[in-house]
Design a protein that fits this description.
The complex is a heterodimer of chains A (492) and B (764). Chain A has 492 residues and is of the alpha+beta class. Chain A is built from 19 helices and 21 strands. Chain B contains 18 helices and 30 strands. The chains are: A alpha+beta (492), B alpha+beta (764).
Chain lengths: 492, 764
């Protein structure tokens, strides 16, 4: 094990901060409001849903700085080691508002003002990391921010106009200064925070991570905290031992070969979405998972390892034929993703196991993909069901069918009966009709407030039909994103 | 700076517009809010402040056998653990007995003997830190014995009639019949409820910072309940993060915190969590409304019979009966109907209380009537637009006395309908819809016409000149995002003849304002704004009087502008406002003579109105609705600040879309709330809100000095009705005639399946 660091060191609004003797599950939001009296950052839900606590997080990256918008309410303080936080108080000067703030004033983007700081910081993060934004992209940017007053239109106006308002200091200067300041908080060694009965480890190498996991086999493994954060803020659980993989560089690597995209367990949704080789269908589905704040903190690995029954990634990855690798000490176990999910709330993860990577096969020519998320609300909603289809068609015949659903059983599950019916048949209307009836053999879904068993089964069958029409070019892929774009373009 | 279409200042020579009213002036509130410098209750932390957490009932109905506080009391940092026995016979807050013969159900501060809804506060833990309070909550041992819920029964019942409805129905050629089941909704202000109570034992002064729409109501109720001299009590509503009717009454938690602050002699803070809000803040809607509309063969409405059933929950906030009584008094909406028979009841139920969520009975009335009109149009084979235009009250009949004794003061309903049809190109839209149907698509067009009463009564205003020359205007109205400081400064500026920069608007603080009503019922600009206008006029007259004496000229010769006052047609420089203030300080002028205090009584109730059109497409595979087009013509009378008005309309529209398509609080049969978080209660996000085309018409209200009408609630009234009609229009060819609210994909899909099944069985 490398040397221990017993404090947390990060930049806050340009100032280096060293925090000692702190409960490791103290949230960034509580620290900002209660310890630093930075009350601009608001608590609207403490669950990562409303975005009122959004702050800008800057991390060093090769060639500069990466800016992310995160929900301060579900970030634990030690997760900030070596990074920089900017809050709403720090982005304007006493004389002049930041362009994103000025745009909000000019377009009446604020009414009661409670969601406003979070929205300003979402806009601020975008201002730092892109050159312009379309209306549809702006609506996407705001998916993690709730506003109950404005109806969002004026905020979208603000987002679209802020790039034409130049800030007083050149953006390059701001980012260069930030990069320099970040260098001053880079440290090596394993962060070890002990407080009362709690202990928090944040190693900076995979070896140390696996050693710690071996030593503390029942520790909670923490990545982006978009799920584990709620265990603390919502369920009021006391987590005794936490091992955070956020500083393990080996787990943040994405490598692309001709055949597969290999994703480290610490890669966020947002990072994976940037990979050009990722199938468009998957990027579009991921676009609807969480909001920006969740996708920029949450990891693909965490979503799988925690076995959330409502995750949208597993059915898509199962359809693509993804495999995962678990490590325990020097041992490695490799398995098909669908085999990892055993039953509701139970995964094939033994004490001390750490999920280290996910391998996503790349579709070959002749492969057809269709991923569908059905929910009440377009963004950041739990799926009523999520249907994912991957077919290989050779000479007009289905040679391979991988179909997986979320929301239809206690775990993400393949529709093996449907697959069996389809395999070997022509990809035709007749085959679809034959296969539709097999859904009943694969799934006995529940009735809950999101939809009845009949709805889930019926829509699953309809999705196969829709996938057929889309994959054969009879209709254009129409998730609501594209229709939404058309509408937004015509907004007055 | 961006070129802003709103900022078209009709400027006079010195750069100020000739008239501030009517200008889209940017908000003076925004600088602090966009910087994070707003001050909300949770941002206030008095020294030695302790923290409160409530222990809430996990069951809907139970006897409380015992509350064991010892373990929690012994926990680290805990200052006190309180239950009902500690509070003595402290009373609940008053209920407005708006319906004759109402059975009033006040809250109990903490449940005594039994609980009557999940989430009801049973005990409170007070500790040095919030974390310590949270830790100790689980140590409070409460012994619940589950029991059958109280039968509840009627909280109120009222019947209103006009003419001979039975006779009208016997003559009818067509009778349309509709039942609308409204979902329970959460007002869901982004800022949860919050209170900081700071009792100063030495002085006997009590300051309560409260996230409220109605600080003066809270002041009166807290003084009365706690037995304090009103003069010793100060209620402050600082920046309030949205309210939408959910912060109009005081809550048991707020009384408990105030009481405990006195008992402990410590400042106490309680901020509701999001879960607390879903569980135990007031909800909205939830009513079941049934109606029958009788028509003659020419389409004339002969009679309306309606049965309105409103749930009340387990206790009554101040305005508990308002949704029901509003719906009853607004029906039959903007239409002439020969005879009317409306029965409304309020039922006590084992759930969280229902309050006056944005609209409060107005959306329910509009939804029932507009659904009935569309259903009648279908039965008659008449275009719904035409049927409406036949029956709308023509402008020449306004002001119009209704069956309920209401006077609809102004409007032009046929014009609103005509304009919405023209702006949306209604005939072309119907042609497009028909063509889409031929291609197998499910699409529909729907209309919603509405009227919106905007409150009666009075509001206060006070004006004085401050030592620095700023004219301070204190209003009894309050603000939760409406931009009151901006709009009221425009009104005062015009009334006095100065610039808004000369004005500071004060609100929300009972030490700094005269007793007032607050922000409710879309009344604030109409009544509170008129109060400012009248007070400004009086202030101007007094200034002219005093300065005339000072200049030794007639008051008419005193010119008042944003610099100060001078004598007309002389070369003397006059006095700057700061000079005038200084002259007041040193006795050359008497500042008290400038002071104005008024309580403005509106002549009547202003009625907003408008018409909405929605076009929708429905996904056959999933039932999901997509709103393709929204067009809206709103009549808000005279407009103070068009930018702010549009902001209110847009925000209301988004909530209306949520109400129509996704929002729903659901209790199971055991009374457990199963939508208690933002994961399960879907509030619209940016992608869910469709673009909209808003147009205004302007008929001046004769009911108040400004001629304005409310805008806060309109979006929740007309929009859901238009969307519901569009969805039903889309589904009609499939044999679907009824979908409950919210019209989710799952519900619509199920309705289509049922109709298809019936159709297939019929063919067999």
């Amino acid at each position: 094990m490398s040397a221990e660091l017993n404090s947390v060191c990060f930049n806050l609004n340009g100032e280096k901060v060293i925090v000692r003797d702190v409960a490791p599950t103290t949230t960034l939001l509580d620290y900002l409001r209660d310890v630093r009296s930075l009350t601009g950052t608001k608590e609207g839900c403490a669950e990562g849903d409303c975005g009122a606590c959004t702050v800008t997080l800057a991390s060093p990256a090769s060639g500069g700085v990466i800016h992310r918008a995160v929900n301060a309410c579900i970030q634990f303080l030690p997760m900030l080691e070596g990074q920089a936080i900017t809050t709403v108080e720090a982005i304007g000067t006493s004389g002049k508002l930041h362009p994103c703030q000025q745009a909000m004033v000019d377009h009446h983007g604020s009414q009661c003002g409670f969601c406003t700081p979070g929205i300003v910081m979402s806009l601020h993060t975008a201002y730092l990391s892109r050159a312009d934004i379309s209306r549809s992209e702006a609506a996407d940017l705001l998916a993690g921010n709730l506003c109950r007053c404005t109806g969002y239109g004026p905020i979208i106006d603000s987002a679209c106009s802020m790039f034409s308002v130049r800030s007083t200091v050149a953006l390059e200067t701001v980012i260069a200064e930030e990069a320099r300041a970040l260098e001053s908080v880079q440290r090596t060694g394993c962060l070890v925070i002990r407080h009362g009965l709690q202990q928090f480890f944040s190693p900076d190498s995979l070896d140390d991570l696996l050693t710690l996991a071996d030593r503390h086999p029942h520790a909670v493994i923490l990545a982006g905290a978009t799920d584990v954060g709620l265990w603390v803020t919502k369920q009021k659980r006391v987590l005794d031992t936490i091992i955070c993989l956020g500083r393990v560089a080996e787990l943040k690597v994405i490598s692309v070969s001709d055949f597969a995209i290999d994703v480290g367990a610490g890669v966020t949704y947002d990072q994976l979405m940037q990979v050009p080789e990722l199938p468009d269908e998957l990027t579009r589905l991921m676009r609807r998972i969480g909001g920006q704040q969740v996708r920029q903190a949450g990891t693909i690995g965490g979503n799988i390892a925690n076995g959330s029954p409502i995750g949208d990634m597993p059915p898509a990855l199962i359809a693509l034929g993804a495999r995962i690798t678990l490590a325990s000490g020097h041992d490695r176990r490799d398995m098909a993703l669908e085999d990892f999910f055993q039953s509701y709330g139970k995964q094939d993860r033994r004490p001390g196991d750490v999920l280290v990577s996910i391998s996503i096969p790349r579709p070959a020519s002749g492969d057809h993909l269709g991923f569908y998320k059905i929910s009440k609300r377009f963004d950041q909603d739990i799926s009523t069901l999520c249907g994912c289809f991957a077919l290989t068609i050779t000479d007009g015949k289905i040679t391979s069918a991988r179909i997986a659903f979320g929301g239809m059983a206690g775990i993400p599950k393949r529709a093996s009966h449907v697959e069996a019916v389809l395999t070997g048949l022509e990809w035709s209307e007749d085959s679809v009709r034959k296969a539709q009836s097999a859904f009943g053999d694969d799934f006995q879904p529940l009735t809950d407030l999101r939809g009845s068993a009949g709805y889930r089964l019926g829509v699953a069958q309809n999705l196969l039909w829709r996938f057929y029409l889309e994959s054969t070019g009879q209709i254009a892929p129409t998730d609501r994103l594209e229709l939404g774009q058309l509408n937004l373009a015509g907004a007055s | 700076m961006m070129a802003m279409p709103q900022q078209r200042h009709a400027t006079s020579l010195d750069g100020d517009p000739e008239r501030w009213i009517g200008q889209s002036r940017l908000r003076c509130e925004d600088d602090r809010l966009v910087r994070g410098n707003g001050c909300f209750v949770d941002d206030i932390k008095p020294e030695t402040c302790a923290y409160v957490i409530f222990v809430r009932s996990p069951v809907a109905s139970a006897e409380i056998k015992s509350v064991d506080k010892a373990a929690a009391r012994a926990a680290r940092g805990v200052l006190a653990v309180l239950s009902a026995e500690d509070f003595g016979d402290i009373s609940g807050a008053a209920v407005n007995p708006v319906v004759e013969g109402m059975q009033l159900v006040e809250f109990t501060v903490l449940a005594r003997d039994r609980v009557s809804a999940v989430g009801q506060p049973v005990a409170m833990v007070i500790a040095e830190t919030l974390a310590q309070a949270i830790d100790a909550v689980d140590l409070v041992a409460i012994d619940y014995h589950a029991c059958e819920p109280d039968p509840g029964g009627a909280g109120f019942a009222h019947r209103s009639t006009l003419g001979d409805c039975d006779s009208a129905f016997s003559k009818a050629v067509v009778i349309a019949s509709v039942c609308v089941q409204h979902a329970r909704l959460a007002p869901m202000s982004l800022e949860p409820r919050a209170v900081v109570a700071d009792y100063d034992r030495a002085q006997g002064n009590f300051t309560i910072w409260l996230s409220t729409q109605t600080p003066w109501r809270a002041h009166a109720e807290l003084s009365r309940i706690l037995g304090l001299a009103p003069a010793r009590v100060r209620v402050v509503a600082p920046d309030v993060g949205g309210s939408f009717g959910g912060k109009a009454s005081i809550y048991p938690e707020e009384v408990a915190v105030a009481w405990a602050s006195i008992a402990l002699g410590r400042p106490l803070k309680w901020c509701a969590t999001r879960s607390d809000e879903f569980l135990a803040a007031t909800h909205g809607r939830g009513g079941t409304l049934r109606g029958k509309l009788a028509l003659a063969d020419n389409g004339k409405f002969l009679g309306l019979k309606a049965e309105l059933d409103f749930p009340l929950g387990n206790w009554m906030p101040f305005s508990a009966a308002i949704p029901g009584s509003n719906a009853a008094r607004i029906l039959p909406g903007p239409y002439q109907v020969g005879s009317v028979e409306i029965n409304v009841t309020g039922r006590i139920t084992p759930h969280a209380p229902i309050g006056i969520y944005r609209g409060a009975g107005r959306p329910e009335a509009a939804m029932l009537m507009e659904r009935l009109v569309d259903e009648a149009a279908r039965l008659l084979g008449m275009d719904p637009l035409k049927l409406r235009s036949i029956n709308l009250i023509p402008p020449e009949l306004l002001p119009y006395a209704t069956h309920a004794g209401e006077i609809i003061d102004s409007g032009d309903f046929p014009k609103a309908l005509r304009e919405v049809a023209e702006l949306s190109d209604y005939p072309a839209l119907c042609t497009l819809r028909d063509a889409a149907r031929l291609k197998g698509e499910i699409s529909g067009v729907g209309l919603g016409v509405y009227i919106e009463p905007c409150g009666r009564g009075s509001e206060s205003a006070a004006i004085r000149l401050r030592h620095d020359g700023i004219i301070v205007v204190a209003t009894g109205s309050t603000a939760q995002g409406q931009g009151r400081e901006t709009a009221f400064a425009q009104i005062a500026a015009d009334a006095i003849g100065v610039s808004p920069n000369n004005i500071q608007i004060i609100h929300g603080d009972t030490d700094l304002t005269l007793p007032g009503v607050g922000a409710l019922a879309s009344r604030s600009t109409a009544i509170g704004g008129s109060a400012v206008l009248m007070a400004g006029g009086q202030f101007k007259a007094k200034v002219a009087q005093e300065l005339g004496a000072y200049f030794n000229c007639h008051p008419d010769e005193v010119v008042i502008d944003h610099f100060g006052c001078r004598q007309r047609s002389t070369l003397s420089a006059g006095l700057l406002w700061a000079d005038i203030a200084a002259a007041c300080d040193d006795g050359r002028l008497c500042g008290d003579n400038f002071n104005v205090k008024i309580d403005y009584q509106a002549d009547g109730e202003a009625w907003s109105s408008g018409a909405c059109l929605a076009a929708v497409a429905i996904d056959r595979d999933t039932g999901n609705v997509q709103v393709k087009k929204l067009t809206w013509v709103d009549d808000a009378g005279s407009v103070i600040n068009p930018m702010l008005v549009k902001g209110q309309l847009l925000g209301g529209m988004a909530q209306g879309i949520g109400e129509a398509l996704m929002e729903s609080l659901v209790y199971d049969n055991e009374g457990q709330l199963i939508t208690g978080s933002l994961l399960d209660y879907a509030v619209p996000k940016a992608q869910d809100v469709p673009p909209i085309h808003i147009h205004k018409i302007e008929t001046i209200s004769p009911s108040n000095a400004l001629g304005v009408k409310g805008v806060g609630e309109a979006g929740c009234i007309g929009i859901p009705a238009a969307v519901a009609n569009a969805v039903h229009d889309a589904l009609r060819p499939l044999g679907v005639h009824h979908v409950d609210l919210p019209m989710t994909g799952a519900r619509i899909w199920e309705a289509i399946q049922r109709a298809t099944k019936i159709d297939q069985e019929g063919q067999q």
